[in-house]
Specification:
- The chain has a domain of 94 residues: Arc Repressor Mutant, subunit A (Orthogonal Bundle).
- The longest helix has 28 residues.
- The chain is built from eight helices and two strands; from the N terminus they run ααααααββαα.
- It is globular.
- The chain is mainly alpha-helical.
- Strand 1 and strand 2 form a beta hairpin.
- The chain is 56% helix and 7% strand.
- Strands 1-2 form a two-stranded antiparallel sheet.
Amino acid sequence: MPSSPPVPDPAAVPAEALAAPGTPTAPEARTGAPVGPGAPAELPAPVEPPAPAIERARRLTDVVTRLRRALRSSIRTDYPWESLPMAQVELLQTLAAAPLRVGELAARQRLAPNTVSGLVGKLLDAGFVDRQADPGDRRTARIALTPAGLRQLDDWQHAHERRIATALGTLTAADREAVMQALPALDRLARALASPDQQHRPE
């Protein structure tokens, strides 16, 4: 009668040998991901800004949002026809510098190309932009501001300037000075938000 095979001593067998097939073991069990050559690197957890920074950002976001909403609603008091969506205004502002292809506009505005195509279509219907042949590629067209679009943009800008000037006039001299003193820092903040990969920490 053949003898039974010896039963291994669990204390002498590595944990990897005792695990059921497909069951991860340390360090795989700790990470939930494969280890060894070719294994994907573990992504670092996002760094949460300190609480004071979050509170400052919250206050600034609230003020900027209310300022923009107030300006958009109050402008209709003096300028009832001002109903151009902000997304279209921003396209006109971008095109005021130079004609661009739809793809270039989408990249500048960080919008999907089909979204920009829809906005451009509305501006074309209104006569604020037109299509021009691209000198570098006859198969494509560039979107350019028309004289009517430029007038619309100028009117929009001047109406907002008048409303802001009127509102500034209601502030104290100290508050007006504080607002103007903050403009350079706000400009730098806008640039940092526009180019998040080029942000610099103050020394």
